[in-house]
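Wed. Picked up where I left off yesterday with Orotate phosphoribosyltransferase. The coffee machine is broken again, so keeping this brief.
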Amino acid sequence: MTQRTLAENVASMLLEVKAVRLNPDQPFKWASGWNSPIYCDNRITLSYPKVRTAIKNGLASAVQAYFGDVDIIAGVATAGIAQGALVADWLELPFCYVRPEPKKHGMGNQIEGASIKPGQKVVLIEDLVSTGGSSLKAVEALREAGANVLGMVAIFTYGFEIARKNFADKGLNFYTLSDYETLIGEAVTKKYVTESQLITLQEWRQNPAEWGV
Ligand SMILES: O=P(O)(O)OC[C@H]1O[C@H](OP(=O)(O)OP(=O)(O)O)[C@H](O)[C@@H]1O
Ligand SMILES: O=C(O)c1cc(=O)[nH]c(=O)[nH]1
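Structure written out below (tokens, as returned):
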């Protein structure tokens, strides 16, 4: 399957299971603090075995194709945990997940599960990239723990310049199964969006950090 076909298939599945929501009148608040008329809830895909498996296969194949020899798969908490664990299982590799900050009781861990030995090769699995802030926090924690973070694979990216720059600044390669441009293309072709929703999305896209403020 070509990269393009995969991106279209994944976008189409996200639309079919209603993971993508549009609500310009009551904007969604994102992890970055940005307001947005669109929200892509990839967690919903876990409820659909065929979609869940297709995504798992896509992520695992990408790990193999782009990174080859890997020691540990890590998931970004919380939305990257389930798919990360599925990918680790498929690849028969150890798994850990990375909290946004250390736990405040118990063992006080930020990285849970597989313990990382210095220099071990880790690939991170994330569900979605907006600004990239959450993913890069996880990368920092893994690097502090001594990991050689080879890169990241995620289900979806909005394709914002800020994310590209954030990842480049940290020297991290990342790949995604699908992206905003492909999603909107599919949504238009299959009539999931109205003309007025498209206009709102175009306005939002011009300056997402300031939209709805
Ligand atoms: O690229 P960013 O700007 O950081 O945004 C994307 C992040 O936001 C969401 O997580 P959220 O913080 O909503 O929490 P969850 O994973 O626990 O659901 C999503 O799962 C990504 O991790
Ligand atoms: O940036 C976010 O917080 C975010 C955006 C989005 O579309 N979906 C999601 O789960 N998180």
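Quick read: The chain has seven helices and ten strands.
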